[in-house]
Design a protein that fits this description.
- Keywords: Carbohydrate metabolism, Glucose metabolism, NADP, Oxidoreductase.
- Pfam families: G6PD_C, G6PD_N.
- Belongs to the glucose-6-phosphate dehydrogenase family.
- The chain is an alpha/beta fold and 483 residues long.
- It folds into two domains: 137 residues, NAD(P)-binding Rossmann-like Domain (Rossmann fold, 3-Layer(aba) Sandwich); 293 residues, Dihydrodipicolinate Reductase, domain 2 (2-Layer Sandwich), CATH 3.30.360.
- Helices cover 36% and strands 20% of the residues.
- The protein contains 15 helices and 15 strands.
- The strands form two sheets. It has a nine-stranded mixed β-sheet with strand order 14-13-12-11-7-10-9-8-15, with helices on both faces.
- α1 links the parallel β1 and β2.
- The chain is globular and about 80 Å long.
- The mean pLDDT is 88.
Length: 483
């Protein structure tokens, strides 16, 4: 199967923070792959902007090095890397001063779509928006892309949204969450709303519970300063896991259009009940297997920031009343593993008797590292000896099912092209961000007021024992990380 590539018109893309880690690892290699695929025309101009004075040639060398490091070797040899580098320019610029802005204005093409990627800290978002709009570098068709974190709490998120809204309307603002660009996340909507098989069963009458797991094997080294202020709740639950929860729980939108999809996601967030204290488990990894502890990684021997969190959540609506959602995420866990597991209820009556055991259907949506969907069904164990039942997976690995030609674009590739096309379906809206913080803030204030300390857990384990007890009290078990 060959993916269909639809070219876009030439555009100007300005990457503030153009020499930063995100630009090096994701943005620039992603643009290179879209250029190789024939989606980006050669008339396009990509301008890196930053404080360093490396010049155009220095920037092209920087980008070439990044592409060799983070793209497949065959891509660099087959595609014309030098042709892509011809699209690049660089401007040394002061986001809060006057330097470089006149040079940037002179490089932009009149009448062409302009997209400005804020690959910088949120503290600069307001300054950049003011400089761009106040300096006449934008028009009604211009777009800005902002990276998370979208604030630190509700108050800061509202202030950030207000700063952007003062110069740009909501249809020009693209708040990027790379999880929404993953192929499997979008396939979740296709599975739900494109198949009659699942949607009639997608409710509390048939679903026992849903688990959402985002496990990481790495620690926080390299992000220590940020993570110590954020923790797992702010860094992962408030955005990534919240978005996955919305997609798994939302009502079918009237149309697959940006605002209709985001309207339904917003309803899910607003339907979330407050989380009870005994439904929260926070953890912090300790040293093991030759790796440092969290406190050593952040150089704070008294840190009370969580590197792991597990929550039991409920939605107060007709579809999901009574169905628990178990969320967990953490650093230094057993494996890199992101999955959504929908566990269906038992059959109302087993005709096979107690000796057949307990069997349940499960739908697993695997987000990483191997994207795919698995449906676990119950069949007879082959051979004589009576009716013995076993659970077997109907497994669809995207790589195997769709063939090697279906090399799915990286999330950033898809999302950047959506910005250029003006499609906001996979981007967060201002009220969505604020609603997520409105639910998150009381959870954080609660454990801070109680003085709760995170539970220690061994590095490369499944997290603290209390997390296992959180779900085991309900007669359920976590799906094993890495399975």
């Amino acid at each position: 199967m060959v993916s269909r590539v639809i070219p876009v018109d030439p555009f100007d893309l300005i990457i503030f923070g153009g020499t930063g880690d995100l630009a090096r690892r994701k943005i620039l290699p992603g643009l290179f792959r879209r250029f190789c695929a024939g989606q980006i025309p050669s008339e396009t101009e990509i301008i890196g902007a930053g404080r360093s004075e490396i010049g155009q040639q220095g920037y092209r060398e920087f980008v070439a090095s990044a592409i060799h490091e983070f793209s497949k070797r065959e891509e660099c040899s087959i595609c014309g890397l030098n042709e892509f580098l011809e699209l690049l320019d660089y401007i040394s610029l002061d986001a809060q001063g006057e330097r470089g802005w006149a040079d940037l204005a002179a490089r932009l093409h009149p009448g062409r779509l302009r997209a400005f990627y804020f690959s910088v800290g949120p503290s600069l978002f307001g300054d950049l928006a003011e400089r761009l709009a106040g300096g006449g570098l934008t028009d009604a068709g211009s777009r800005i892309v902002v990276e998370k974190p979208f604030g630190h709490d509700l108050e800061s998120a509202q202030a950030l949204n207000a700063a952007l809204a003062a110069r740009f309307n909501e249809r020009q603002i693209y708040r990027i969450d790379h999880y929404l660009g993953k192929e499997t996340v979008q396939n979740l909507m296709a599975v739900r709303f494109g198949n009659m098989l699942f949607e009639p069963l997608w409710n509390s009458q048939y679903v026992d519970h849903i688990q959402i797991t985002v496990a990481e094997r790495v620690g926080v080294a390299g992000r220590a300063a940020f993570y110590e202020k954020a923790g797992a709740m702010r860094d992962m639950v408030q955005n990534h896991l919240m978005q996955l929860l919305c997609l798994i729980a939302m009502e079918p939108p009237a149309k697959f259009e940006p605002d209709t999809v985001r309207d339904e996601k917003l309803k899910v967030i607003r339907a979330l009940d407050p989380v009870e204290p005994h439904h929260i488990v926070r953890g912090q990894y300790t040293a093991a297997e030759g790796v440092a502890s969290y406190r050593e990684d952040v150089d704070n021997p008294r840190s009370r920031t969580e590197s792991f969190i597990a929550l039991k959540c409920h939605l107060s609506n007709w579809r999901w009343a009574g169905t628990p959602f178990y969320l967990r995420t953490g650093k230094r866990l057993r494996a890199r593993d992101s999955q959504i597991t929908v566990v269906f209820k038992d059959a109302p009556h087993s005709i096979f008797g107690p000796e057949a055991g307990r069997h349940r259907n499960e739908l697993r949506i695997k987000l990483q590292p191997d994207e795919g969907i698995t449906l676990k069904v119950t069949i007879k164990d082959p051979g004589p000896g009576g009716m013995r039942l076993v659970d077997v997976p109907l497994d669809m690995s995207f790589a195997e099912a769709l063939g090697s030609d279906a090399d799915a674009p990286d999330a950033y590739e898809r999302l950047i092209m959506d910005v250029i096309r003006g499609n906001q379906t996979l981007f967060m809206r201002d009220d969505e961000v604020e609603a997520a913080w409105a639910w998150t803030d009381p959870v954080i204030r609660g454990w801070e007021s109680r003085g709760d300390a995170p539970k220690p857990y061994d590095a490369y384990s499944a997290g603290p024992d209390d997390a296992a007890m959180l779900i085991r009290r309900d007669g359920r078990e976590w799906r094993e990380i890495g399975s």
